[in-house]
């Protein structure tokens, strides 16, 4: 079994998306930007599932099912995170991570 050249391109794009997401998550202090970085990481995983499904196992649909499941989980996660961010903004008038420490207690 040989790996197609198109798979390398998709894996490169996926790796770039993943590391941009990790960099954004660790360097930003805005909760909305951190949420967008997490979504980038999840989309890079989805791209990996689709790429491997297409090039390594073309007859199976496992990667597609995992991708749909991850998209559903990401939508639920984004809805809960935005609700928490809105609640934090209403109480502290800021969405900075440093102000989110008050939510511990």
Polypeptide structure, described:
The chain has 105 residues and is an all-alpha fold. The chain has a single domain, classed as Helix Hairpins (Orthogonal Bundle), CATH 1.10.287. It contains three helices and no strands. The termini are far apart.
Give a quick summary of the entry.
With 105 residues, the chain is mainly alpha-helical. 75% of the residues lie in helices and 0% in strands.
User: What fraction, in percent, of the residue positions are helical?
Assistant: over 70%
CATH C-level label: Mainly Alpha
What's the number of extended β-strand segments?
A: 0
The name CATH uses for the topology is Helix Hairpins
How do the helices and strands follow one another from N- to C-terminus?
HHH
CATH architecture type: Orthogonal Bundle
- What would the average pLDDT be, to the nearest integer? 86
Strand percentage lies at under 5%
How many angstroms does the end-to-end distance come to? Answer: 55 Å
Largest β-sheet summary: none
Number of helices: 3
Total number of distinct structural domains: 1
Radius of gyration (Å): 17 Å
Shape, per Cα inertia axes = elongated
**Helix-and-strand structural type:** mainly alpha
Low-confidence stretches: none
List keywords for this structure.
single chain, 105 residues, mainly alpha, Helix Hairpins
Topology, pairings included?
Blueprint: H1 5-27, H2 31-55, H3 62-92
Helix pairs in contact: 1-2, 2-3
